[in-house]
Amino acid sequence: RTISALPKMCPHFHLSLQSGCDAVLKRMNRRYTSGEYYEKCALLRKYFENPALTTDVIVGFPGETNEEFGESKAFIEKVEFYEAHVFKYSKRQGTKAAVMEEQIPEQIKSKRSDILLALNEEGRQAYEKSFVGKEVEVLVEESVEIGGETMQIGHTREYMKVAVKTKENLQNHIVKVQIENDLQIIH
User: Fold this and answer.
1) Cα torsion 100, 102, 108, 113: sign
2) What pLDDT is attached to residue 70?
3) HSE, side-chain direction, 13 A CA sphere, residue 30
């Protein structure tokens, strides 16, 4: 609660998940459960208005069954991340995982990655659309020409990249911007 009261604290939190399945987390030797992780996300949402929650997820960890992948996917849907960085498991020599049985074939890892990347895109779009019609603060970082028009580009407190239509140089200034549509949010 104390941190959320600090005006300079930005509501963007990157919490590495790795997997939304407890059995996979245990094989990864993670010392948390999906339930504990979810509690932390709920706590952030309690004290920060619409925080941007981002994460890292690994697909295809040795032994990951279709059911375990399904659990992880369902958990990611439940959390409703702004963005999830999806990685396919790759062997690292000298690690316990590299010699585990049941290594997942590359084509299965790719398919699972594609599924989570599509889910990530849905989550990103939904989060960004939640800002349409709202006023946000943007730290303007640069001026660019887009389609013959001068635009100022910067980041919101949630770390969304936003375009501001103006010829005025606002670089290094924080300005209030009305998000009129999701096209103002740049990727």
Assistant:
1) negative
2) 98
3) 21
Show the DSSP H helices in 14-53 as ranges.
22-27, 34-47
pLDDT tens digits, one per residue of 57-112: 999 999 999 999 999 999 999 999 999 999 999 999 888 998 889 999 999 999 99
Distances (CA, A) of 180 to 40, 132, 143: 32, 6, 20
CB 114 within 8 A of CB 153: no
Measure the CA–CA gap between 41 and 131, rounded to whole angstroms: 20
Rg (CA), the chain: 20
Cα atoms in the Cβ-side hemisphere of radius 13 Å centred on 46: 8
Contacts of 116 (CB under 8 A, 6+ apart): 57, 59, 73, 76, 84, 86
Contact between 58 and 89 under an 8 Å Cβ cutoff? The reply is: yes
Q: Which stretches of 9-133 are assigned E, i.e. beta strand?
A: 12-14, 52-59, 83-88
- Confidence (pLDDT) at 158: 96
Of 134, 148, 147, nearest in space to 162 by CA: 134
Summarised one tens digit per residue, pLDDT across range 93-103 is: 888 998 889 99
Instruction: Work out the angle at residue 174's Cα, subtended by the Cα atoms of residues 169 and 180, and round it to the nearest 5 degrees.
Output: 85
Q: Does the reported pTM lie above 0.85?
A: yes
Which residues in the chain show pLDDT less than 70? Answer: 1
